[in-house]
Write a structure and sequence with these properties.
Chain lengths: 587, 79
């Protein structure tokens, strides 16, 4: 496969064979290796030395189900550490179809404020990918909902797109990289960690991909690959969470609102309670019923990308039955809802739409508004006020720029002490004081506070992959470590993390995952290799962070969580520092 | 004694018509367990994955107290 390097200083590029060491690496394994090996840890995230690396997962572009995943990696302007931000999109498959192992964006143009697009196609003659650079100045300062149709008109219906919105142009630490969904809409994101600002800092506005003419991927042992993929498919179709018309397909990821609320672990009004009285109004069940009412029929969810058989993405409708936004995910629903004391799905949908239009991470946006509410900028529960704040961010007003700097930055600007961040990145939708294991993941992850980095919610809340008391800190460091390593592996092979619900419960699905890889690559991995291979990725990320000045002292939750008991269980975060230090100390 | 049962996701179909916020009041004999409550509600037991009493996960044999709040869930996941 190919390793492409783009130098944005002069819009030149090279295409070489990817090194042999990358043969068995993909996705996060590739992005974190290149960032670790090539980016100076003390470089400025928005300066010329940082590199933005895209890599599709190992299985991406194959017929393995739910595997259209892309990893975007760089040094993060939000955390100052390494970042891998993962998304599901057909763009990931197009990169893989073009035979691209990694696309590395380097350098920076001299001209401030000038932007280009890279048009990525297959060169039949040279039998390799090629790139044309085109000016992108016509597309600046606009909503992505206006820009995407223009790009599709210009480049044709079949292309896929990665890009940045105005949030990246402003250089906000809260800025994602956007990708098209299955309906050519700018709705899928590598949201976390400010990757949009990194891409924009290089003067790169869009990467338009068209794999027409590229040869099919080789599969080393097709029989084994097919056997693996069949086991995976069967597990996904059998498990109550992932099966057709199952939990995810019917209610979407927001099905979690009620169970976290019941467990007292749904962060409410800027992490001041674990229960939200309006939970039922914004839960996945309410989304399903709301869509049914407005559509006049039951509507099941769709895939974010081709080849997903779980299909967890909803489309919220306006009262007149027309589309409002796709998709209201659990995290967005919580961040812009419960965390702000807002119980109107229409208000939440409008904020999600604005985040997609401007290029914001919905989690960081909701937690930033929560802190602004704590500071008294607007009251908790003020839906229209919150919508206005997202608009301010999109317009780049002075207040908008403070908010665009993220949750921690906003907390500093207003002197707030209850600021739910670790390593500069805000916490997602699970309260560490009510779910101790996920708190350990937030505290220690190389990514800053990140639930996907080690999703102990499975055994702690959902009774998936084990049964653990969420309030008990005992044994949770080892649990978090194992989940963090397994996740690093799954993020590298390119399956959507939601396969984990099925394969943690159904052993043959887990075997299938490893067989898919062995069939594709001709390797002889066993299920015992998963954790050690993920561990190698974590070690590189950790080494980068330590060299960037982010060590064990930063592996802590904010002080207020160790002092303020959280209702309803009235617990503080009581995991001892030694346990936190053991997560990476004993890696 | 009275306890409050809350049914979620696909289990909502087993709520009485007039239930609001997923909730229904159930009359049980003193000393009844979570299992007894599931039976009283005629829930498909193999679909029930998580039972919480007052916000804590509790097993089927857990003895209920008057006014307990019991959350009952099928397998759910997301992220
Ligand atoms: S399960 Fe959901 S998030 Fe994962 S690939 Fe499918 S639609 Fe996308």
């Amino acid at each position: 496969m190919w390793l492409i390097r783009i130098n944005m200083a002069d819009r030149s590029y090279t295409v070489e064979k990817a090194p042999a060491a990358f043969e068995t690496l993909g996705g996060r394994g590739v992005t974190s290796t290149i960032v670790h090996d090539e980016v100076p840890p003390l470089s400025h995230p928005l300066g010329p030395s940082n590199k933005l690396v895209f890599s599709p997962g190992l299985l991406t572009g194959t017929a393995a189900p739910s595997s259209a995943r892309i990893s975007a990696g760089a040094k993060s302007p939000l955390t100052g550490g390494i970042k891998e931000s993962n998304a599901g999109t057909a763009w990931a498959q197009h990169l893989a179809n073009l035979g691209i192992k990694a696309l590395v964006v380097e350098g920076q143009p001299e001209e401030k404020g000038a932007y280009w697009m890279a048009h990525l196609t297959w060169d039949d003659q040279e039998e390799r990918p090629s790139i044309e650079f085109l000016p992108a100045d016509d597309y600046l300062g606009q909503s992505l909902f206006d820009v995407f149709p223009k790009l599709y008109e210009r480049f044709g219906e079949r292309v896929t797109i990665a890009g940045v919105g105005v949030s990246g142009e402003y250089g906000y630490a809260n800025s994602g990289i956007v990708y098209n969904d299955n309906n050519q809409r700018p709705n899928r994101y590598s949201g976390r960690g400010g990757m949009g600002a990194v891409m924009a800092s290089k003067g790169l506005k869009f990467i338009v991909a068209d794999p027409s003419g590229a040869p099919r991927r080789e599969v080393a042992d097709r029989e084994l690959f097919n056997q693996g993929r069949r086991k995976m498919r069967e597990a996904l179709q059998e498990h109550a969470i992932t099966q057709p018309k199952g939990g995810l397909n019917m209610y979407g990821t927001a099905v979690l609102i009620n169970i976290l609320n019941e467990a007292g672990g749904l962060p409410t009004r800027n992490f001041s309670s674990g229960r939200f009285e309006g939970a039922a109004k914004i839960a996945g069940e309410a989304i399903f019923e709301g869509i049914k009412d407005r559509a006049g029929e039951e509507v099941f969810n769709h895939g974010c990308s081709p080849g997903c058989i779980i299909q967890c993405s909803n489309t919220w409708l306006r009262p007149d039955g027309t589309e409002h936004v796709s998709c209201i995910e659990y995290e967005s629903d919580w961040a812009l809802g419960a965390n702000c004391g807002i119980d109107s799905l229409d208000d939440i949908a409008e904020m999600v739409r604005l985040c997609n239009a401007y290029g914001f991470d919905t989690i960081e946006t909701g937690t930033t508004i929560g802190v602004a509410m704590e500071a008294g900028v607007i009251p908790f529960g003020d839906g229209q006020g919150a919508i206005n704040l997202v608009e301010e961010m999109g317009k780049g007003t002075p207040l908008g720029r403070i908010l665009g700097g993220g949750t921690e930055f906003t907390g500093r600007a207003y002197g707030v002490t209850r600021v739910p961040t670790v390593k500069g990145q805000s916490m997602p939708a699970y309260e560490p004081r009510a779910v101790k294991g996920i708190g350990i993941t937030y505290a220690t992850s190389t990514m800053g506070a990140d639930h996907t980095a080690g999703y102990t919610i499975g055994p702690e809340i959902l009774a998936v992959g084990g049964d653990e008391d969420p309030l008990d800190p005992e044994g949770k460091a080892a649990l978090s470590r194992a989940f963090q390593a397994t996740t690093a592996f799954i993020d590298s092979i390119g399956h959507c993390l939601f396969i984990a619900f099925a394969i943690l419960d159904i052993e043959s699905g887990y075997e299938g995952m490893v067989e898919e890889c062995n069939g594709l690559l001709g390797t002889d991995w066993t299920t015992d290799d998963v954790v050690p291979m993920g561990t190698e990725v974590l070690k590189k990320e950790r080494a980068f962070n330590e060299a960037a000045g982010i060590g064990p002292a930063q592996d802590r939750v904010p002080e207020f969580m160790t002092r303020e008991p959280l209702p309803p269980h009235n617990q503080v975060f009581d995991v001892p520092d030694e346990a936190l230090d053991s997560v990476y100390g004993e890696l | 004694m009275q306890v409050q049962a809350r049914l979620f996701a696909t289990l909502r179909n087993h709520l009485p018509e007039d239930a609001t916020d997923h909730t229904t009041q159930v009359e049980l004999p003193e000393g009844a367990t979570v299992e007894d409550l599931l039976e009283k509600l005629e829930l498909p037991k193999d679909e029930v994955r998580v039972t919480m009493v007052n916000g804590r996960a509790r097993p089927r044999e857990w003895e209920l107290e008057p006014d307990d709040e019991v959350g009952i869930f099928p397998a759910v996941g997301g992220g």
